[in-house]
Here is the input.
Amino acid sequence: MHEFRHASVYPSTHLGAILRQCAPWLLIFLVTFLAYSPALNGGLLMDDAEHIRRPDLQTLAGLGRIWFEFGATPHYYPLLNTAFWLEHRLWGDAVLGYHAANIALHALAACLVVHLMRRVQLPGALLGGLVFALHPVCVESVAWIVEQKNTLSGVFFLGSAVVYLRFDRERRLPAYWLAFGLFVAALLTKSVTATLPPSLLVIFWWQRGRLGWRRDIVPLLPWFGAGIGMGLLSAWFERTYSHASGAAFDLGIVERCLVAGRAIWFYASTALWPVDLVFIPPRWQIDAAAALQYAFPLGVVLVIGGLGAFAYRSRGPLAAALLYVGNLFPVLGFLNINWFNFSYVADHFQYLALIALIASFTAGVALLVQRLPAWWTRPSLGPAALLVGTLGWLTWHQSATYRDAETLYTTTLGRNPAAWLAQNNLGVIFEDRPDGLPRAVEHYRAAIRLKPDHARAHNNLGNALLQMGQTDEAIAMFLRSLELQSAVPEVHANLGLALLRARRPQEALASFERALHLAPDTVPALLGRAEVLATTPGRTTEAVAALYEAVALAPDAPRIRETLAALLASLPGRLDEAIAQYEEAIRLEPAAAVAHNNLGTALAASPDRQPEAIRAFETAVRLQPDYIEARYNLAALLSEIPGRIGEAAGHLEKVIQLAPYDADARTRLAVILLRIPGRTDDAVRQLERVVQLQPTSPQARVNLASILVRQPDRVEEAKYHIREALRLRPGFAPALELARQMSPQ
Here is the structure.
């Protein structure tokens, strides 16, 4: 009997098992990217640029500053900013990469939610991960680039929790140290993750009904130390570098409890009914004398107390509530956060806390399904799919509001008309657009009406008014901004520029020097101070020094180098320095036609560098064909070179096409045409047009007469123009001289 070999079924079975294992994770990533697709190309918001578009932090030295220089970044989150540093290496300023990374991190966090629920043996884990991935409250954390601090820290937070739970079961040190390392990484990404150790204790109490000192508490003591230390550092950072101090934070403990109670109910309501979410929710008026406001914290106490009383039957609901409130604690108002200037709440504040509500809800749904008859189990998937689909649609719709800053702020004002920050930010957007200044002014004024003590809005309004030529009102806005917040060097510099525009140079100089006293590296103040000093007798050397200092502070700013070069070019013996600065400015910005023209002007001052000057002017004209000044300068040089006088005439003819009423260009062209054989009549026509443009100019008439007098048939016209010149200006020497030359005739 023959034996037959059968193909093994194990490889395909093994592959099928792998696909079944990967399917949930692939599903989560797929639906997450689909739901957030409208935000993939969303623009920069709020402080995004401070994190991803700062050249001073994108170098190796900048990486060192991220870790070791307090104040180099808005918050001391060095791992977050290192992530941005690495991402900038990968995709530069392209927002797509940052958004894709944030969505992927959120999807990974959702996968970890599934893993965590399975680790603690909660049913409905996949549903929990999908709900977290698609919950609209998370949109603010995922679609806003800078909130990668939520998604990245969330991955570290959840990863640490999963690994520590493994350590709790197996008690192996490698797992402990890996979990601790992930926790430290979470802290260095966002300090609110300090809530992880108490969260783990709540989970252990829920699982075992009690906490053991040696088993549960002692291993977490270093975690508490790290969390408390990072929390204190973060609180100090908020006050010192993020302006989380002042009247907006002048709340007593009673008021802070009122804020906390109301915030908890706000977050719970948006988690349960995530419709019409607001980027900047209304900022509540907290009044300790209003009895109704005490209902919020009292309600929280009653709910927690009720769940505590129910804990003898089931610890789960109380554990979920403690996890939810505990992870919200850092943002409930007991600690100062810069965002409280705008609102006491924000969707991105409950990113981690939301997991407790979702896990308890989906576990409850799964337990309910398990108790249903067997024939109802499969149909019960319909409501779950409907829930996930509805959340996905809401998230897709909410993500669309983040497609650009204007849409987000406009939507915010539609849902919260009192959002003064949105008004101010819309003003910034319109100020950068052609013909957008009037709308920018409207938004700035609206922001000031909503918040009269908004110092930045006054400064922004002053800048817009200054650009519109309303100098006096701009000065008033800058002064008001300084009344509200006096130690802002930028505003002192802006006031100086306005005073300079108003021809009040000494007052302007004082403003620039106050700005530099507050921040010696304020480049606009250095430039303004240099401008004043350059026109002050005996202080030109100081002006040059100020500009060199500005160049040192901003070596990649071509405009500063051009300003320095222009001043150097006006000083005896410093032309070579001026040329070097112009050349460096051109290296930084090769397409700057003005810089090429100015370089040509400096080179033309040296007789041996005329060919270089011509090339510079030619480059300026090539880059900007309608650049009249460059064509003037090029024509002047070409007219002195044998064989190129025709080119000079061509450039001046182009100038006249661009500026038909430019009498000076026509006069210059006429002078050149007279040197070209056969073009005398063209020269006469140009000078006749000059007389038409400037009928009261005696010089224009003399210029025309000086040519007409050489043509026998037009001598009478020449005499007429000479008489008119003398009538317009009796005793005009050129007219008298020309008349004397004609007298023998």
